[in-house]
Design brief:
By secondary structure, this protein is α/β, with parallel strands linked by helices. It has one domain. Helix content is 45%, strand content 13%. The chain contains four helices and four strands; from the N terminus they run αββαβαβα. The strands form two sheets. The chain has a two-stranded parallel ribbon with strand order 1-2. Strands 3-4 form a two-stranded parallel ribbon. Strand 3, helix 3 and strand 4 form a beta-alpha-beta unit. The chain starts with 14 loop residues before the first helix and ends with a helix.
Length: 120
Amino acid sequence: MNVVGSRPDGWWRDRAGAVERLVGQLEAWAESSGERVTVVLEKQPNRPIETGRVEVAWASSPGRDAADDEIVGRLPEWVAAGEVVVVTSDRELAGRARAAGAAVEPASGFRRQLDVGPVA
């Protein structure tokens, strides 16, 4: 939700729709960039999100910062497999991600890349 919430476009009125739009943008970005993308949500979506290149995951346990904890829990495996960039503007998650060996990119900057669209 860090990336979704980085632009006040009314996303809070339709969280599910905002996540689906984000995943759609990430699909285009992943296709263009060739990067692997995983979106980690606080809870399982009510309706399935159709994806091709983007993995949609959710926290394995409920609670505050559950998605952050899920990301940090997955980082050792991801970092061992190669370079990892965590997109977040949450300082605590950013610190935890860096401590685990991941790079961090601010959500607002990454969102601007998505808004521009895929590079031809």
